[in-house]
Predict the 3D structure of the following.
Amino acid sequence: MSLFALQGAALPTVAEPAIIGVMLLYGVIVGGIAVWATRLTRTAKDFFVAGQGIGIWTLAIAAMSATLSGFAFIGGPGLVYTLGIGAMFIILPASFTNTMGAWVLAKRMRLLGEVRGLITVPDAIGARYRSRAAQGLSGIAILVAIIGYMATNVLALGLVVDAVFGTGLAWGIWIGLAVVMAYSAAGGILAGVYTDLFQGAVMAFASILVFFYALNAGGGLGGISRTILAGDPGFLGPWGKLTPLAALSFFFVFGLGALGQPHVIHKFYMLRDPLRLKWYPAIMTAALMLTLLLYFGVGVAVKAEVLKGTLAPLVRADDATPQFLLYYTPVLLAGLVFAGVAAAIMSTVNSFINIGAAVITHDLPLALGRTLSNELHWGRLSTVVISVVAALVAQLSGTLVAFLGIFGWGLFASTLVPALAIGLNWPGATRSGAIASIATGLVTTLGFETAAYFKVFSFPAGVTVSGLSLVLSLLVFFAVSLLTRSEAEDIDPDIRLVMET
Amino acid sequence: MAARAGMAPVLLGTSAVAVAYASAFLPGGAPGWGAWAMVLGIASLSVGLMMLGASRQGRPLGVLVWPLAFTFVALVGCFGVALALPATEVAGARLWGGLPARTALILYGIGALPALVLPLVYARTFRTMTLDSADIERIRAARRATESTASAGNP
């Protein structure tokens, strides 16, 4: 199942003047923020870690915006419509993953930025294990995952632009990407986080309003449940249409995998005052849960309306949100949600572009024992190259894009959770263990996904490739670290201090 | 450096998740205990990782033991009850907070309750258990020491 192939087919056309107006206003505000932030971007440190000068609200909301792609607004409600409560297991872990991430990663990443001036996630792996190979390999894994993630997100952005402005898909992709590329190349992550702050606010506001319209349409949550229980009781079972093991497998992948998402982890470097991390879990969790109300609300409300016969059965599950907006909300709110979808996609794409550019201009040269003389210049150039490659890939066959979109989250999780999240907290982790686990995550995720996608091998019910790859990577990490435990003391004193703090 | 608290549940949890996935490859598909192994694995891994991250060299977990125990009980309890109870999701079933009982237990007990408890515990214990100004000063001193060593080596 392609959880992150957000949208493979065209959305219904929603080219109404009010929606176009809201989208244009949204674009103007994003552009204004980007121009302002671009003027502040003078060094590579500004470009890649926002000059290590952002506040806790900006950090938390930008992390939330980057976490949620358009999937939260379009694909997610469609998945709830199809799988029932089973689809909720993707977002259920949000109740604790941010606090877990704060304990496991936030403080240590921020302190690594303080003690070494690190700017990328692979930097942290390289410093922890004193290993260029580990840094380079994790950089390659991130780059591979980013290509897949970005292609699907850019395709989804093109579909949204096409649905609102009627541009056609190809132009939609280039127009949408040109906007993101402009502020990503000019202002780097500094422009990214401040546009993310605005975009996150749009997403949360739109989600809360739509959730109340969804409850209202179905006669409250009780009314929606009674309608669904009368027509399709299995939909509202605790596992929905999934087996318990399959639903729990989602929970495992999206719960533990949250510790391996570089577009969130990377942002911990950017916080101005480390003591403000105190409020990170509270702000991030509240923002995330409010923004995910639409995911649940629209999914169950549309199901109830279809069962009541007031809405025709959906031709495609991904039509759930557009159909609901079309028939049950005021047109201005529909415009706001489409702006929210665009915001969700653009904030995710911007983060990926920046991380990818950092891998190309910083991590890979370092892994090869070199440094580039002007990282800001090369960072901007890499941003443009990555964007153009993603747009070209997004215009290839839908099958290829869907395939690329499958493995993003899982590849991040299986390559970064053991080596980074556990490695920064467990002094027994070794360089060999880290390299072996990153390689295992890379090979098993790509290998299993390819085998499954091309039907060379089918995995039994309840087994997700991402989950299997993550657990194999963890097992290899522990086994190799234990076998090479004589390496475990090989930690630099300042890194050891960060791990002990 | 002593092995940190949390590694035992992390190792146990990883093994339980591996067993759960392995059970799905058995002839006839995953047996009932496969889902139970996954529940125990998820709870042990999640809480173990939180212990690992929250623990600091030479200090006990202190009051953090309670919210972490609460998280473990919430995960095992809510998933476990949902697995153990018979299905009651039928037309006219009694609703709890607008949802059938087992579903309400999962959505509210796991999807909402930890969100109300854990971030507040984190904030409340931040200065005493996670990070304070003295910690940051030690880190900055380490950076200054590294920089002065480097500059002494590169005149």
About this structure: Residues 1-7 of chain A have pLDDT under 50 and may be disordered. The first helix of chain A runs from residue 17 to 40. Chain A touches chain B through 80 residues (CB under 8 Å). The domain at 47-395 of chain A is CATH 1.20.1730.10 (Sodium/glucose cotransporter).
